[in-house]
Amino acid sequence: MTLKQKARKFILAVFVISIFFQSELRSQYDYDIVIYGGTSAGIAAAVESSRMGKSVLVIEPSDRIGGLSTGGLGATDIGNKIAIGGISREFYERIAQKYATPDAWKWQEREDPVETKWTFEPGIAYEVFEDLVQEHRIPVEFNERLDLRDGVHKTGGRIQSIKMESGKSFNARVFIDASYEGDLMALAGVSYTVGRESNSEYGESLNGVQTKLGHYHQFPDHVDPYIVKGKPSSGLLPNVNQDPGAEGSADNKVQAYCFRMCLTNVSDNRIPFEKPEKYAELEYELLFRALEAGYTGPLFIMTKMPNGKTDSNNKGPFSSDFIGKNYNYPDGDYKTREEIIKAHEIYQKGLLWTLANHPRIPQEIREEYSTWGLPKDEFTDNGHWTPQLYIREARRMVSDFVMTEHHCTQDSITAEQSVGMGAYTMDSHHTQRYITEEGFVKNEGDVEVGGFAPYPISYKALVPKESECNNLLVPVCLSASHIAFGSIRMEPVFMVLGQSAALAACLAIDDQVSVQDIDYYKLKAVLLSKGQVLTAK
Fold first, then answer.
1. Which of 274, 365, 441, 453 could serve as a FRET partner for 294 with CA atoms 20 to 30 Å apart?
2. pTM of the shown model
3. Does residue 401 belong to any structural domain of this protein?
4. What integer pLDDT is reported at residue 2 of this predicted model?
């Protein structure tokens, strides 16, 4: 063999080996970043990952992206909007652009000037997220749920791949859990909690059982809790507890969920409320008794959206929150969760029908609610009802750093390594109904404490303990106490944290370090260049 032939053979061998290793690398890492959960946070993370030149996949357990932002929550909760930056602000700017076109105003005259950036219809929000996904050519795997028995394969503290119920498996260098439930986080062996901590755990004052702060959304006195009034032997009405627990103590109860209902009173676009097949009148007995005891409303928050629609949310002692019916949701399997979601749907549809039709509802209330219905042009593939239950709180990661009420108020400490700002009131919905010493029914768990400036959210709250997992970021079920999470858990903030998590993931990949060991000052510089707001100063 001549020297020239040997050289050619050597070059060919190098080429074959190179192709082999490239193939192996591709098989080892299908994507740079895999995001579980196509929520608003998940889509923001995917968009930023794409803009940074990384290969990215979104896995969405349902058939719809956007989470609550496309699921009926059109009245943006944030408090001080100075805290909204980056892709989160871009989302709302794109909402305004949609409404700047005449075609967006089918059911009412166009607003002039257009001021609909912060209040929007579900369908418009869905269009914006769809635009972002298509513009960035982001692949989305729909209707793929984690295998809850064997869904995460780890080597040491590193996730190598995740497996779906369908058998599909996905590999990545870094994973982001952007789900409301935190399933990927939990399956990865990361520490988490469910429910309320005691006040003593983090030196807080607003955590745990809170009967003395129950001034909002509260029953009037003299509402009897028993099936037969005045007869304890008849049993308690549905979802009423005998004892709420000691003040400030921990429990595993979860603040109430509901659907954010998109309703309309535009007759040409309205579907009247129907009585659900499994309607249970006893579920509404406390409503009847509250009205008989003198309560006159409100029964919902009816925030006006464009085109004669609403974002209808819980307000009052008996409203859309299905109090006490979600405790098994965070750690529940898919069947358990589906049953809870369906129960909430039946309850709320039954409530709407009751308000519009039941003879024990005062006539003026029936007449008012009879003018409302479900919009024909929303959620057309789900019976015009939103498929997204408002998971206000599920699992919360417990990392080396935990956001608490002190970080929200900044009364004694400010969170370091900011990756975004929170600005909303510390807000917990009721978690239970109980019987007072006087024998009346009351709601417990509502806390609404605000009045503080926007505050930083630490990067350290987005990463697990390094010993547990070193290539996972958690921007939604982040490390926070119950009451601090009540302020952080707003859709604009989740989008901010999703984008910041993606930028951190890119930095970890580029520098070949764990997500815990990235250079925060590098991250900060990139965050600021991307328009993120890291301080109120």
1. 274
2. 0.93
3. no
4. 56
